[in-house]
Amino acid sequence: MKEYIFLGLLLSVLIIIFIAYEVPSKDDFSPENPLFNGLSQASMLAGMVQENVGSLSSAPPNSTLFIIGPDKSFSNIDANEVKSFLKAGGTVILMDDFGTGNSLLEALDLNVRFDGRLLMDPLFMYRNPALPIVKFSMNGSALNVYFNYATVLDGNLGNRCIGYSSAFSFLDSNENGVKDQDEPFGPFCVAASFDYSLGRLIVISDSSVFINSMLDKGMNEKLLSMLSGNGKAILLVGYWNQSEYTFIRNSLMSSLYALLNTWLLYPFVIVLTILGAASGKIAYISLAKRGKGEDLQNNIQEILKRHPDWDEEALIRLREEMRQ
Amino acid sequence: MKLYGIMLLLFIVFLPLTAESTTIPRHEDPSTIRESWNIMSYFSFLSYVSKYVSAGNYSRANESLTGIVNSYIPQSYRGVIDRANSLMNQILIQLNQTEVLLEQTEAYINQSNFTAAREDLDHAKIQLNMANITFLSILDALSTLPVGAGGASGYLSGLEERIAHLDSKLSALEDLLRNEPYIGTKITINVKACSVEWGGSIAISGMLSTEFGQPIPNRAIEIHVGNKVLETFTEENGSYRIESNVTAYTPQVSIYSEFIPRGEDLFVYRYSRSDVVNITVHYISAIISVDLDKKIYLPGETAHLFLHSNLSFPLPFSVISTIGNFTGILNGNADVALRIPDDVGEGSYSLTLLTPPYGKIAPFRWEGNITIVKLPSNIIIDIPKKVIAGKTYVINATISPPSYIVVYSNIGQAVAEGSYIRFHVPLLYFGKSLSFELVATPFNSSYRGVAFSSEIEVINPLPIISAVLLGGGSLLYFLRYRLGKIRIDIKREKIGISLEGKEGPKGSIINEVFALISKLYGVNMEPWMTYREYMRHLLNKIEDDLATFISDILTKLEKAVYGKKDNLALLKLAEERASILYGKLKSKLKGE
C-alpha cells in the first residue's frame, strides 16, 4: 500500500510540473502570459527582467522600472525603495488606470493623480470608443498610441504633459458609453513626465498599452522601445492579484529554475537518482511479489498434500497478504 | 481500490489548479471586442467641418477633416466614407483657392490693377464651379449611407452656404469690373547717378500723367529704394522729385516708383508702375579671420580665439556660443579668452562672431565650431575570476584620476571604501555567477566617467559537499548490501547447499548426509523446507543421539552462513561433524 502512495505522489508531482511548464499563466500583465492580456511579448522585446521592490537598490542608475497596473497599494517602505531608485537616477514608468497607482504618487508627493473615470473617443479609436487613440510627444517624435479602457491624469501638469487625447474624447463618468451633457470633452492629459531628483517619473493613464494584443496597434511598440531606453529594463512584480494557478506555477518554475541554474543542481540530481532507484526497486519488489504470490497460489494444493493438517483458508489468506 | 485511491489523490491535487484569474477587468481583447461605431457620429463630425467652412475658417476645417480621415471607420463603410472624405478634402482646397483668388481680385481692384484683377476673377470662377460639382459628388457618395442624400445635405449646409456666399461675392466683383470707368495712368522715373558711396545721397525724379499725357498733380507716389519705401507728392505739372541716402549693404540697389490710387482716386485712375533702375553701392566689407588656439578643449580650460581684421580701426564685436558669450572691440587684432565651463559635456558647440553695421562698414558674421572632449579615465581592477560563497573579498581598484566610486552587484553587498571594494558572497547564494558593476565619476571634470562590469563565477561548497555526501552514502549503502549478498553466496557455495533448502552442488558432505537420512528414515530435504522444518519432520523418526548430532551440525551451518563474523572455523567444524555423522549413518545402513 505504501509503495502505491509513494508512486502516486511521484507521478502527481511529475504531472504538475509538466502542466505548470506547458500551461502558461492567464493573469493580467503576467510576463509569462502569452494570451491577449499578458506582457510576454513586451517583456521579451524590452528585455525586461522581473524584480521585486526589494531588489531595486542593486539596479544600475540608468535602469528603467516598469510598474504596470498595480492591484495592491504601495506601502511606505516600498514607496521609499522606488523613491531611492529615482534619486539614484533611474526612470520609473508608472502605468495604471483604475488600480492603486495613486498610492505611489501620494507617497512620492507629486501633484498628479489617476482620475479613474473611463476615457472614450468616438472618433479616434479602434473599433470601440473605449479603445481611444492618443498622441504622445516624446524626444521630438509624435506617436499615435492606442489605449484600452484608460483613464486620464488630473493635476496642474502644464508642460509636463507628454500625451493628450483628442478634442473629441470625453470622460464617460456614468459608463453608459455615450457623451452626456455633464461629461467633459477633451483633450485630456494622458501621460506626464516629472523630473525627480536625478531620475525621471513618467505616468501613463492606461496599464494596457503594452499587453500582447495592443503592442502591434499604432506606435505602441515604438513607445515601449523609447521608454525602455538603453539601460536595464525592470518589470516590477509582486503588485498584481495572482490566481492560485499562477502562484503555484511561479513557485514551481522559480524552484525548478533555481535548481537547474544554480549549484543546487548537483544535490538535486543525486536525490533524484536515489528517489528513482528507490521507486524502481519498489516497483520491482511489487511486481516480484505479485509473481511469487501466483506461484504460491499454484502450490497451495501441493502444500496441502504434504501438510494435510494445515488450514487451507489460512493459506489462502496468507497468499492474499503476500500479494499486497 | 488502490487505483481509485490514486485517482482521488490526483483529483484533490489538481482541483485548485484551474487556470482562472480573478483580477479586475481593465481591458478587452481588441480582436474580439464588439465594434461600436455610430454613423451619426460621423455625420456630426462632418457637420463640424461644414460649420468651420461656413465661418471661413479653413485651417480648423482642415484639421477636423484630417481627424475624420484618420479616425476609425468600419470595413463595411470604408469605401463610401473614404470617397466622401477625399471629396471633402477636394472641396476645401477649391473653396479656399476661390477665397484667395477673390481676395486678390479685390486687392488688385483696390490698386486699380484691373488686368490682374480680371485674371484672378476668371480663375476664381473656375474654382467655384468645380467646388459646386464636388459638392454634388459628395451628396451623391453619402446618399448610399443610411441617412440618405437629404439627411447628408442637412449636415453639410455650411458648405452650401459658403458656396452661395462666394458666388454672390464673385458676381459683385464681376459687376464692378464689367462697369470699369477708370482712366489709365503712366509713371516715369529718372535717377541721375549710376553708382553711389554708402550713405551718399541720390536724386530721384519722374512724372505722373494720364495715359493720354495729361499731368496728374498732388498725388502720392511711392518710391522703392532697395528695401526702403519713400513717399512724395507730384507737383502741379505732374513731376516729382526726392533725395534719399543709400544705406543698404548690398552691391546693387533697385529703384522704382508706383502710383496706387487712393481715396477719391480709387474709382477714377488705374494703378501704374515705373521701370526699374539699378545703381551700384560702394561700402566697406570687414574681413575677419578667426583662429582657435587648439582643435579640442577640455572642460574648465580657456579657449583663445585670435581675431584678425582687415580694417585698422576699432570695431565692436560679439562672440555668441552656448558655452559662453564675449563682447569686445576689435582693433586690428584681438585675443578673445573664452572659459569653458566645468560642467559642459563632450561635443561640438557652435561659435558665432558678429560685428554690427558700423557706418560704411558692413556687418560681419562668422560661424564655426568648438570641440570639447574629456580625457579618458584609467581603471585597473583586480577582479577575481572565481569566488567562493561564504567568503568576503576585497578588491583593489586603481582609478586615475581620483574618482567617486559606486558599486552595484546582484548580491547587493558590495561597498566601495576609497579605492577598495569590499563584497561578501553569502553562503546561501547558490547562483553560478554574480554580476558586478562599477561606476567611477572623476572629481576632475576634465575626465570622462568610467564604468566597468563583469560576471564573476561563484563556487558554493555547500551543495557540492552535500551532493558528494549523499552520492557517496548511497553508493556505500548499495555496495554494502551487494557485498553482503555476495559474501553469503560465497559461503553457500562453500557449504554446498542453499539455505532455502535447495540442493547445492552434488558431492558435498552435507548432501551425502541428507541422502543417507532419506534412505534410512524416509525424510527428504524438500525445496520449500527450512532447516527447522526439516528437523521437525525428522525428530519423531530418528534416534535422539543422532537428532542432537544433526541439530548441532545444522545450527553451526546456520551460524556460519548468517553469522556476521566469518565463521569459517565453524563451517569446518560442521563439516567434520557431518563426516562423523556420515560414517555413523553409513554403518547403520550396512546394519552394523
Task: Give a structural overview.
The complex is a heterodimer of chains A (324) and B (592). By secondary structure, chain A is of the alpha/beta class. In chain A, 39% of the residues lie in helices and 20% in strands. Chain A contains eight helices and 14 strands. In chain A, strand 6 and strand 7 (128-138) form a beta hairpin. The longest helix of chain A is centred in the C-terminal third of the chain and has 42 residues, at 265-306. Chain B is of the alpha+beta class and 592 residues long. Chain B has five domains: 34-178, no CATH class; 185-282, Immunoglobulins (Immunoglobulin-like); 285-372, Immunoglobulin-like, CATH 2.60.40.1930; 378-460, Immunoglobulins (Immunoglobulin-like, Sandwich), CATH 2.60.40.10; 496-591, no CATH class. Helices cover 40% and strands 28% of the residues of chain B. Chain B is built from twelve helices and 27 strands. Chain B has helices at 2-14, 39-54, 58-70, 75-110, 114-142, 148-155, 157-178, 461-495, 509-521, 531-539, 544-562, 568-590; strands spanning 185-191, 195-197, 201-210, 220-225, 228-233, 239-245, 252-259, 272-273, 277-282, 284-285, 288-292, 296-297, 302-309, 315-321, 326-330, 333-339, 347-355, 361-362, 364-372, 378-381, 386-388, 392-400, 403-409, 414-417, 420-424, 433-442, 450-459. In chain B, the strands form seven sheets. In chain B, strands 2, 4, 5, 7, 8 and 9 form a six-stranded mixed β-sheet that branches. The interface between A and B is large, with 76 and 61 residues.
CATH names the topology of the largest domain in chain A as: Rossmann fold
List low-confidence stretches of chain A. none
Number of domains of chain B: 5
Which chains share the greatest interface?
A: A-B, 76 and 61 residues
**CATH architecture identity of the largest domain in chain A:** 3-Layer(aba) Sandwich
Question: Oligomeric state of the chains?
Answer: heterodimer
Question: What's the number of helices of chain B?
Answer: 12
Span between N and C termini of chain B?
66 Å
Note the gap between the termini of chain A: 7 Å
Task: List SSEs of chain A in N-to-C order.
Answer: HHEEHEHEEEEEEEEEEHEHHH
CA-based shape of chain A: elongated
Radius of gyration of CA atoms of chain A, rounded to a whole number: 31 Å
Uncertain spans of chain B, ≥5 residues at pLDDT below 50? 16-24, 497-506
Round the mean pLDDT of chain B to the nearest integer and report it.
83
Let me know the largest β-sheet of chain A. Answer: 10 strands, mixed
Count every beta strand of chain B, where a strand is a DSSP E run of 2 or more residues.
Answer: 27
